[in-house]
Structure to design on (386 residues):
């Protein structure tokens, strides 16, 4: 373009910078920005917003502030998008007080926050467990600022569940259903997830029925969430029944659902059924991933079948999967639990040679063994790892 005698203008530069930012090529975008300003071309708010957003996404808080100050120095007035990006950058840094100050400054500068701005602000408070403050912001955005909440505004339902404030979560959820916007599948999933984690599975099931009655179709996430809830709360037979309900609904379970169920069966001592389910995966068109293999290996170890677990452990890479740190730690812990220290140390050597490290559970088990090691042989073997 330049070779043919055309000089890029602000629109050309802005378009290319925005494209680079969307492709996460922040350094290249900044270089082009420097070229642009070096030629005396004044960046507009769109250019600054593109760069600010890209920096925010890569966690460059200091650089965001520097660019913000440059924006003001260039007499480029920030708009609602600019301020919202700055609030989001502060939120990601955990600077919750700064997010509030930015919004206050925004209003003082005559720029009115929109629903997205308030959503980001509320999310920051929710992440820090300050649910009452988040709730106050939701109320004020409607009554004082006249902003209409969207489904993302009510994501704090999950936050209330996370902090075991289920009654308040239900109150907020019902408020949403009555005042709008109407909850979508994502909102229902978030609430069902929160309830499942707290063991409130009967309420979660009622929500599933309500969801279907409202014309919303439960998706794979809905079913995996409830399936996980049943398994984690020791209700394995309900999990099996629910799995059949899912299959009858027309939704095809994926490897995630099978992995959840196999894990639940192993933890419930139903190893025979877990084995059958695992062995039948290939006939259903599924290839176990390293996560599924590790679940089965852990289940076998828990049942005292460390040698069978080890045989499966060795089949993982032959199947095309790569063993990871979790796989090694589970296998080592399995042998330690079954008093086969020599094999555990052998696998520990292999794990370290592949660049993996012992997790806290593995390290604790070895520390206990070292404390009872009267011969010094274990210490000698461990020292070989250095």
């Amino acid at each position: 373009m330049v070779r043919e005698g055309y000089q890029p203008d602000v629109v050309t530069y802005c378009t290319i910078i925005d494209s680079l930012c969307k492709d996460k090529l922040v350094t290249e975008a900044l270089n082009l920005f420097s070229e642009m300003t070096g030629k005396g071309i004044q960046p507009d708010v769109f250019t600054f917003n593109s760069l600010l957003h890209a920096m925010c996404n890569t966690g460059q808080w200091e650089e965001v502030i520097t660019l913000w100050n440059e924006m003001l120095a260039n007499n480029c007035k920030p708009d609602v998008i600019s301020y919202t990006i700055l609030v989001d950058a502060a939120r990601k840094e955990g600077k919750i007080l700064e997010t509030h100050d930015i919004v206050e400054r925004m209003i003082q500068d005559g720029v009115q926050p929109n629903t997205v701005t308030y959503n980001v602000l509320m999310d920051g408070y929710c992440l820090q467990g300050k649910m009452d403050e988040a709730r106050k912001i939701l109320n004020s955005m409607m009554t004082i600022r006249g902003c209409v909440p969207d489904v993302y505004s009510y994501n704090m339902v999950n936050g209330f569940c996370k902090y075991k404030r289920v009654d308040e979560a239900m109150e907020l959820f019902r408020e949403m259903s009555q005042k709008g916007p109407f909850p979508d599948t994502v909102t229902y999933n978030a609430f069902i997830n929160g309830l499942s984690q707290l063991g409130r599975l009967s309420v979660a099931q009622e929500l599933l029925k309500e969801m279907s009655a409202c014309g919303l179709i439960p998706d794979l996430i809905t079913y995996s969430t409830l399936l996980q809830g049943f398994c984690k709360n020791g209700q394995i037979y309900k999990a099996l029944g629910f799995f059949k309900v899912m299959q009858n609904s027309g939704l095809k379970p994926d490897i995630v659902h099978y992995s959840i169920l196999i894990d639940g069966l192993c933890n419930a001592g139903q190893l025979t059924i877990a084995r059958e389910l695992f062995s039948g995966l290939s006939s259903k068109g599924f290839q176990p991933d390293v996560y599924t293999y590790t679940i089965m290996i852990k289940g076998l170890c828990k049942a005292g079948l460390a040698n069978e677990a080890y045989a499966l452990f060795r089949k993982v890479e032959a199947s095309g999967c790569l063993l990871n740190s979790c796989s090694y730690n589970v296998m080592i812990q399995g042998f330690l639990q079954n008093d086969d220290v020599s094999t555990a140390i052998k696998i520990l050597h292999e794990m370290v040679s592949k660049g993996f490290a012992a997790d806290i559970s593995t390290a604790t088990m070895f520390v206990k063994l070292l404390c009872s090691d009267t011969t010094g042989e274990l210490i000698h073997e461990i020292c070989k790892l250095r």
Remarks:
- Residues 166-179 form the longest helix (14 residues).
- The mean pLDDT is 89.
- The chain is about 70% helix and 0% strand.
